[in-house]
Amino acid sequence: MDDELILDVADVSYRYPDAAGDALAGVSLAIRPGELHAVLGPNGSGKTTLLRVALGTLVPRVGRAAILGRPAAAWVPRDLARVAGVVTQREDNLFPQRVRDTVGLGRYARLPRWGPESAADHAAVDRALARCDVQHLASRWVWTLSGGEYQRVRLARALAQEPRLLVLDEPTANLDLRHEMQLFELVRALVERHYLAVLLVTHHVNLAARFADHVLLLAGGRPAGAGTPAAVLSPDAVAQVFDWPVAMTPFDGRPQLTPLRQRKDEP
Amino acid sequence: MKTLALGAVALLALLLAIVLGPAHVALADLATSDIVRSLRLPRAMLAFLVGGALALSGTGLQALVRNPLADPSLLGISGGAGLGAVVAIALHVTNPWTIPLAAFAGALGAMALVYRLGVMGRGGAGLDAATLLLAGVAVGAFAAAVTTAIVSLSDAAQLRNAQLWLWGGLSGASWQTVGLMCAYAPIPILALLASARSLDLLALGEEPARHLGVDVPPLKRRVYVAASLLTAAAVAVSGVIGFVGLVVPHAMRLLWGHRHRPLFPAAFVGGGALLALSDTAARVIVAPRELPVGIVTALVGVPVFVVLLRRWTTS
Amino acid sequence: MTDAVGRIVTLAVPAQRIVSLSPAGTELVFALGAGNRLVGRTTWCDYPPEARAVPSVGDGLSPNIEAVVARRPDLVLLYRSPLDQSAADHLSRLGIPAVVLEQDRLSQLGRAARLVGRLTGRDSAGDSLAAVLAGIVARPAPPAPVRLAFVVWDTPPVVIGGGSYLDELATLAGAVNVFHDLPGASASVALETIAVRDPDVIAMPRDSAGVDAGPPAFLRRPEWQVIRAVRERRVVYLVGSLFGRPTPRAELAIAELERLLKDAKP
Questions:
Q1: If you measure CA to CA, which chain C residue comes closest to B158?
Q2: Which residue in the set B21, B40, B169 is minimally distant from C156, CB to CB?
Q3: Could you tell me what percentage of chain C is helix, strand and coil, using 3-state DSSP and rounding each to the nearest 5?
Q4: Tens-place pLDDT, residues C90-124
Q5: Range of the domain at B47
Q6: What is the pLDDT of residues B219-269, one digit of tens each?
Q7: Do C154 and B96 touch (CB under 8 A)?
Q8: Looking at beta carbons, which residues of chain B come within 8 Å of A117?
Q9: pTM to 2 decimals?
Q10: Distance spanning both ends of chain A, measured CA to CA
Q11: Structural domain boundaries, residue A207
Q12: What is the predicted ipTM?
C-alpha cells in the first residue's frame, strides 16, 4: 500500500490583502492515494481559499502546503499539471470546440514543446473519455452538451492529464439529481479502481457523507471537524456550522442530513 | 485541400501585384523590366510581409485579451506610431529613415505605456486583459488628439502629407525595406508561433489554463510584446492599415477552426494575400493616381466584417 | 466689380487700412504701391521683406476674426477657400468690406490686380500689372519642350497636376508637365508611374531654408533610382515664395525656371 502523502496541508492560516480577518486559520489536510476527501462548509467558509493554498496559488502566512513533499508554491505550472488535475467551478470557453479536442487540451503538460501529439497522447485521451463514459460524445460540439455531460467532459480533460490527485471545486452545482449521482459514482470509481487521490469541495453534505472517506468541515475558515463522515457529521456539529437545526439519520452506514422546520406555526 | 487553395490565392495575389500596375509593362518584358524588379516585386513582398504581420498580430491579440474584436490598432500602437510620424513630418525632417524610425519609436512608447497601465489591474497577476484594452483605447485616443492638434497647426502641404502617411501606403518599398522586415520579423513571429498551444488553453480562462499547466503571466507578456513589435514594424514601414488584423483572423477561423497551430500560419498567409491584393487595387483603380492602401482595406474590410457579425449573431 | 465669389464690393474712398490674409494678396498690395497702407498680414507673408514689419494676425488658414478686427481695417483681402469664405461673410456682417480673391493662376492674378487697384485708388497700377500678366499668358509656348515633373512629397510620391500655377509656369518656360493630364493641383501617384512617364528633369518646390540644404535624402533611396531623372541627378529646386503662388514677379519666376532647366537638361 502506497503510503506516500500526495497532498499535505499543515495548520495553515491565510488572510487576503486588506481583509479584516483570516480566511483560513489552523486548517490541516492530508491526502493519500485511494482516498476521497471532501471539504464541506457553507458559503464563505474558506473552502475555495483552502484549494488555492493547497495548489500553491496562495502562500499561507502560517503553516505549509506541500505536494509530493515539495512546497505547493514552488511547483512550476507545467510540472504541477502532471500531478494534479483540477476541475474549477466555472470555465468560460470562448471558442467552439469538439469534445475530443477539449479533452485533448489536458495533454498540454505532457506534450513536447514543439512536437506533435503522439499515439500515446491519443490513447490517453481515449482512456479518459472511456473512464468518464463520454466516448460516445467525442465528436460532438461542446455547446450541444447538457450540463451533466459537460461536467463529465471536463473531468475527462482532467484525467487526460494522467494526474495522481484530482481536485474538484463544487462539481455538481447546477446539476440535476441524475447527473449529480453519476458524477459522484464516477469519481468514487476512479478512486477505487485507479487509485486516484481526490479532493472534493462541496456544500452537498449528503453526497459527501455517502462517498467520501474523509470529511473536513469548515466554518468561518476554521476546522469544525475532521475525520470519517460518521465521526464528523453529528447533528450538533452540522447545525452549528450551517446555522440551521438538522437531524442526522444513518443510511447505508453513512449519516444523512435532514433539515428541520423552524417555523412551527405553519403546516 | 484548403491549404492548397490558400497557397494558390497567395500566389495569385503576388502574381497580380507584379503584373498589374498603372504603368503598362508587357508580359514579355516582365522579367527584365526595371519597374518590375525594383518596384513591383519588392512592393509585393513588403505588402505580403506587412499584411501577414498585421494578421498574425491580430490573431495573437484576440487570443490574449479573449476578445474577438481586438485589433492591433485598438491597443494604441498605431496611434503612437502616427504621432511619431506626424511629429517628424511637422519638423520638416528630410532624412527618409526618420519618419519610419519616429513612427517605430512612437509605437514602442505607446506599447510600453499601455503595458504599464495594463499591469495595474489586479495586482500581481500581470497583464489584465480588460485593463489592457481600456488602456489601449485611452492611449490611442490621446495620441490621436495630439496628432490632430499638430496637424491642425501645420500648413496645408504638411497636413496633406501627414494625412497621406496616416492612411497607409507601401510606396516606400524597396529591397532594403524588405530585407529589414525579413531580418526583424522572424523573432516576434517565432515567439507567437511558440505560444500557439498555450493560447488554445488560455481560451478556457486564465485559471483553467494555469491548472492545465500554462504559466500564464509570462505567456501574456510574450504574446503582448511580440504582437506589438510586429505591429510597430508594420506601421512604421507602411502607415496605419486597418482591418487586416481584425478581419483576417476571423475569416481564417471559419476555415481552420480555433486551434492556433494551424490558425497562425493561415492568418499570416491570408493577411499577406489580402494586403497584396489591396495594394494592387490601390495602384490600379484610379490610375494614374494612387489611393492610400488603408482606404482600400477599410472599404473591403467593413463589408466583410458586417458579414462576419451577422454570422456570429445568428449562430 | 465683383470678387471671385461674385460679391460686389465698392468703397466710398480708397482703402487706407488693409489686412491681407494671403501671401499673394500681401505681395499684390506692395506691388501696387499701397504697401504702407497694410496694417495686417499672415505669418506666411514673407515677401517683400518690408511686409515683415507689418503686424501679423495669425496664420490665415482659419482666419482669426478678432485679430483682424483689432487692426480696424477698412478692407480685408482673403484667399478663396471654404474657411476664408465664411470668414468673409462674417466680416461683412460686422461691416468690414471683405474681398475674396482667386490667385491660383496668372489670369486670375490679373483680375485680382485690377480689383485691388480699384479698391485702393491705385487703378492705373492695377491695370498696367494686369496688362503685363495678360501679355505673359498670351505668349506662345516655346518649341521643343523639356519634360518635367514637380515632386512635392515622397511617402507617398505626390506630384503637381494640371490645375496649378506651377503647371502654367512650366508651359511658359518651355517645358511640359508630364502630369498635365491630372486635373487637380496635386495627386499621389505610384513611383512606377513617374518612371514610365520618364521626365527629363524633376523640379522640387522647397521653402527657402531647404534650397541650401542640398538634395533631399530620399532621392538616394534605391526605389527612386528607377526614375531616370533621379539616376542622372537632374533635379532642380524652386524657392517657395517665388514659385508657390502667382505673384507680380511671374516674369522672374519664368526666367528662373528656364535657367534651371537649361542647366539641368541632358
A1: C153
A2: B169
A3: 45, 20, 40
A4: 888 888 888 888 888 888 888 889 888 988 888 89
A5: 2-314
A6: 999 999 999 999 999 988 888 898 899 999 988 988 898 899 999 999 999
A7: yes
A8: none
A9: 0.86
A10: 54
A11: 7-91+164-259
A12: 0.90
User: CA-CA distance, A169 to A155, in Å (whole number)?
Assistant: 11
Distance CA C87, CA C65 (A): 7
Among the partner-chain residues B40, B97, B99, the one whose CB lies closest to the CB of C192 is B40
Give the separation between CA A180 and CA A161, rounded to whole angstroms. 23
Q: Is residue A156 part of a domain?
A: no
Distance CA B146, CA B83 (A): 7
CB contact under 8 A, C155 and B99: yes
- Residue A180: which residues within 8 A CB-CB, separation 6 or more? A148, A172, A204, A207
Q: What's the structural domain count of chain B?
A: 1
**Contact: B39, C157; criterion CB under 8 Å:** no
The answer to whether B210 faces chain A, any CB pair under 8 Å, is yes
pLDDT: is B248 or C137 the higher one?
A: B248
The per-residue pLDDT for C242 is 81
Contact B185, B230 (CB under 8 A): yes
Name the superfamily (CATH) of residues C18-137. Nitrogenase molybdenum iron protein domain (3.40.50.1980)
Confidence tier at A1 by pLDDT (50, 70, 90): very low
Other beta carbons within 10 angstroms of residue C86's beta carbon come to 13
Which CATH architecture fits C146-264? 3-Layer(aba) Sandwich (3.40)
Looking at every residue in chain B, the average pLDDT score rounds to 88
A68: region left, alpha or beta (phi > 0 left; psi from -120 to 50 alpha): left
Pick from A130, A227, A144, A210: which is nearest to A172 by CA? A210
CA A126 – CA A109 distance, rounded (Å): 17
Report the CATH number at residue B82: 1.10.3470.10
Q: Measured between alpha carbons, how far is C201 from C108 in angstroms, rounded to an integer?
A: 28
Answer yes or no: do C226 and B34 touch at CB < 8 A.
yes
DSSP state of C41: B
3-state secondary structure of A236: helix
- Peptide bond before B288: cis, by omega within 30 degrees of 0? yes
Q: Do chains B and A touch (3 or more CB pairs under 8 A)?
A: yes
Cis, bond preceding A33 (omega within 30 deg of 0): no
Whether residue B208 has pLDDT greater than 50: yes
